[in-house]
Specification:
27% helix, 10 helices, OB fold (Dihydrolipoamide Acetyltransferase, E2P), Chloramphenicol Acetyltransferase, alpha+beta, six-stranded mixed beta sheet, 434 residues, 19 strands
C-alpha cells in the first residue's frame, strides 16, 4: 500500500481489479485505493501470477503494508503475509463434550441481527441451547433467542429467561420486526395497542459513515486535539475585486484573458500577503517550525467524495491569469476524481471559500502540519462613515485561523491587515492591461 501524501497513514482498499490466480502485466491496474481525499489506482510493480490477496475489499490498510503477492505459479506467498492479515492458526482439537439428542435438536445458530424484543446479539458463530419449552415459547411469540447463556444447567436458555426478555422489552409488529432486522432502530415506545411498536414508529434507519468520512473525521479531531487554534475575523473593501471582475468579463475575449473570478483574485492577494508575512507560510513538525520559501497554496474544493484540497505548487511564481487557470484545472480534475497524490500533498497554506454560499463568517480548521488557514466569507454591503455622511460599500469577510503554538494574535492580525491592503489594491497588483 503506497503512502499517498505526508499525512496519509492508511488507505481503503476500495476494490480489486484482479483475482487470485490471474496473470498480470507490469503496470496493469490491480486495485482501486482511497484516502480521505481522493481515489487512486494501484498498478502492478511487475509481471507474473497473482498468488495471494491479503485484504478484502473495503479494508483499511496501513501504508507500506503488503496487500498482495505476484510471483510464479506454485510459489508460496506466506512469507509476505502481513501481521494484520495473518491467517488464524489452527486450534488444537479438544474432545467434544457429550450432547444429548434433545440438546442437539434444540441448538440454534446465533443470528447476525436481532429484533428489539431480544437482547443485542453479536455475529459470532457460537451456538445457543434452548430447552424444549423455551424453544416452543420463542416460536409462539416470535422471539429471537439471545446470544448469551441462559440460567439453566450449562448455560441452557430456559422458558423463564425468554419470558423475562419478552415482558421487559417493547413489542414489535411483524412489519416493524422486519425493518429492525434490516437496520432500523427502536427508540422510545410505540403508538400501537399496549404501546406496540409499529413500522411508522421506527423513523429512518441510521446512515453508516463511509470509510473516507471516518478518516476525515479522525483527522479533524486530531487537528483540534494537537493544535491551539484561534480565529480572527475582519473584512476588506471589495470595490476593487468587483471592478476587476467586471473589467475581465468585458475584455476577456478581445484581450485574450483567462477567466479570473473573485476567488482567483483573493488567492492571488493571499500569495502576495504571504510573501510579506512568511511566518504563516510554515509547518510545525515534531516541535520544530519549518518556514517555507515556496508557497504551495491549497484551496478547499467540494466534490461528490467530500472535501478535497488541491495544491497550486509554487504559487508565488504565477501571474494572476496563470493562477486562475491552474485553479480551474485542478478544480475540474478534483470533481472528476483524477487528481494525482502529488496534487493533494505538500500544501503550506490553505484557503477555504464559503462566501459563494452566503456565509458571513466561520471558523476553518487547520490541516496540520500547516499553522494557518484562511476562510473567505461572502461580500456584503457595509455602512461606512465618509466625512459627514454614511455610504454603503461592498466588503468581503475574512476569517483567519492560526495555531497559537506558532502564530500569536498580533502576527495573525498583521497578516490580515496586509491581506486587506492587497485585496483593496488588487487592480494594481494584478498588473492586468485592461
Amino acid at each position: 500500500m503506497p503512502k499517498l501524501g505526508n499525512t496519509v497513514e492508511e488507505c481503503i482498499l476500495a476494490g480489486w481489479k484482479k483475482k487470485k490466480g490471474d496473470s498480470v502485466a507490469e503496470g496493469e491496474i490491480l486495485a482501486d485505493i482511497e484516502t480521505d481525499k481522493a481515489t487512486f489506482e494501484l498498478p502492478s510493480p511487475g509481471a507474473g501470477t497473482l498468488l495471494e490477496l491479503f485484504f478484502a475489499e473495503g479494508s483499511l490498510v496501513p501504508v507500506y503494508t503488503n496487500v498482495c503477492v505476484i510471483g510464479s505459479p506454485g510459489e508460496s506467498a506466506e512469507a509476505f503475509r502481513p501481521v494484520q492479515a495473518a491467517a488464524p492458526a489452527p486450534a488444537a482439537k479438544a474432545p467434544a463434550p457429550a450432547v444429548s439428542a434433545a440438546a442437539k435438536a434444540a441448538a440454534v445458530p446465533a443470528p447476525a441481527a436481532v429484533s428489539a424484543p431480544a437482547a443485542a446479539v453479536s455475529a459470532a458463530s457460537q451456538r445457543i441451547f434452548l430447552s424444549p419449552r423455551a424453544r416452543r415459547y420463542a416460536v409462539e411469540h416470535g422471539l429471537v433467542p439471545p446470544a448469551r447463556p441462559g440460567s439453566g444447567p450449562g448455560g441452557r436458555v430456559l422458558e423463564a429467561d425468554l419470558k423475562q426478555i419478552y415482558y421487559s422489552s417493547p413489542r414489535l409488529s411483524s412489519l416493524a420486526r422486519k425493518h429492525v432486522e434490516t437496520g432500523y432502530e427502536v427508540r422510545g415506545t410505540g403508538t400501537g395497542v399496549n404501546r406496540m411498536i409499529l413500522a411508522r414508529d421506527l423513523g429512518e434507519p441510521p446512515i453508516r459513515m463511509s470509510k473516507i468520512r471516518e478518516m476525515t473525521a479522525r483527522r479533524m479531531r486530531e487537528s483540534l486535539a494537537t493544535t491551539a487554534q484561534y480565529t480572527l475575523h475582519t473584512s476588506a473593501d471589495a470595490t476593487g475585486l468587483l471592478a476587476l471582475r467586471k473589467k475581465v468579463k468585458a475584455a476577456r475575449e478581445s484581450a485574450g484573458l483567462p477567466d479570473i473570478n473573485i476567488n482567483d483574485a483573493v488567492l492571488f492577494a493571499v500569495v502576495k500577503a504571504l510573501l510579506r508575512m512568511p511566518e504563516l507560510n510554515a509547518e510545525l513538525i515534531d516541535g520544530k517550525i519549518y518556514q517555507r520559501s515556496e508557497i504551495h497554496l491549497a484551496f478547499a474544493c467540494d466534490t461528490d467524495k467530500g472535501l478535497l484540497a488541491p495544491v497550486v505548487r509554487n504559487a508565488e511564481k504565477l501571474a494572476i491569469g496563470e493562477l486562475a487557470a491552474r485553479v480551474k484545472d485542478l478544480t475540474a480534475r478534483a470533481q472528476q476524481g483524477a487528481l494525482t497524490p502529488d496534487e493533494l500533498a505538500g500544501a503550506t497554506f490553505t484557503v477555504s471559500n464559503l462566501g459563494n454560499l452566503g456565509i458571513h463568517s466561520f471558523t476553518p480548521i487547520i490541516s496540520p502540519p500547516q499553522v494557518a488557514i484562511l476562510g473567505v466569507d461572502s461580500i456584503e454591503l457595509k455602512p461606512v462613515r465618509a466625512k459627514s455622511r454614511v455610504k454603503y460599500v461592498d466588503y468581503i469577510g475574512l476569517s483567519l485561523t492560526c495555531d497559537h503554538q506558532v502564530i500569536d494574535g498580533a502576527p495573525g492580525a498583521r497578516f490580515l491587515k496586509i491581506l486587506r491592503e492587497q485585496i483593496e489594491s488588487i487592480e494594481v497588483i494584478s498588473e492586468l492591461k485592461l
